[in-house]
Amino acid sequence: TPEWLEGRGEGVASSDGAIRHFMDSHLVPRIWKPSARLLTLAEQMLNPPGYDPLLQGLYLESRALDIACEALISLGDGSASAEQGLRPQEYRRLQRLLALLDSGEADDWTLERIARDVGVNATTLQRQFRLFKGMTVFEYQRARRLQLAREALEREGASVNEAAWRAGYNSPANFATAFKRHFGITPRQVRARV
Fold first, then answer.
1. How many C-beta neighbours within 10 Å does residue 86 have?
2. Among 32, 48, 79, 166, whose CB has the most other CB atoms within 10 angstroms?
3. Within this chain, do residues 105 and 150 fall inside the same structural domain, yes or no?
4. What's this model's pTM, rounded to 2 decimal places?
5. What span, in angstroms and rounded, lies between the C-alpha atoms of 22 and 15?
6. For 175, what's the count of Cα atoms within 13 Å in the CB-facing half-sphere?
């Protein structure tokens, strides 16, 4: 409600045109494509760690607020690149970077080499990528590799050791920790569902 938003910040609902417009347009359909980060947050809400009730509530509330924040950020009327403060050529460069990262070709590259390949310095690349995806280049790569490992566990019946290797981890224990932090569920629990 507008009252809920107003209670979270000084005049937020009245000062932000996109949010105000959204609240004033009842039942207007909007197209929204959730990001990989949002899907991870939703997965964490569906499979929360086994905390005591107080911590569990805080954990779930923090994920819900992150989801609401991402949804509200997407309300602007401009293009995605305009919303995020990126110029069209920067947006296109980041699209090419995503294709490179998703191909796996740059998995072993340094940030400097990745930046050089797309034609900017490492600092500019990190700043623009954070605007674009809300995370660093390496956080994106780690999330992508963990997703590939999860798919191997779910679809191919891969062992936890094999999934850890596919995700680039030498230690299955380190892999399990990163996997649980990312998905809110352990690799063994994923395998048990298959």
1. 18
2. 166
3. no
4. 0.58
5. 13
6. 23
Q: Do 36 and 74 fall into the same domain?
A: yes
Token pair in block for residue 104 = 């796996």
SS3 state at 147: helix
Looking at the structure of the chain, the number of domains it has is 3
Q: Answer for the pair 51, 25: CB distance below 8 angstroms, yes or no.
A: no
CB neighbourhood size of 17 (10 A): 11
Rounded CA-CA distance 38/36 in Å is 5
Q: What range defines the domain where residue 153 resides?
A: 139-193
Give me 87's structure tokens: 């110029």
Place of tokens 């959730």: 34
* Encoded tokens for 139: 């956080």
- Judge if 15 and 71 occupy the same domain: yes
Query: Which tens digits make up the pLDDT trace of 112-153?
Result: 999 999 999 999 999 999 888 888 999 999 999 999 999 999
What whole-number distance in Å separates Cα of residue 190 and Cα of residue 194? 7
Q: What is the per-residue pLDDT across 16-51, written as a single tens digit (0 to 9) for each?
A: 566 666 676 666 666 677 777 788 888 888 888 888
Taking the CA atoms of the chain, what radius of gyration do you get in angstroms?
19
Give residue 144's region: left, alpha or beta (phi > 0; psi -120 to 50): alpha
What is the rounded CA–CA span in Å between residue 114 and residue 22? 38
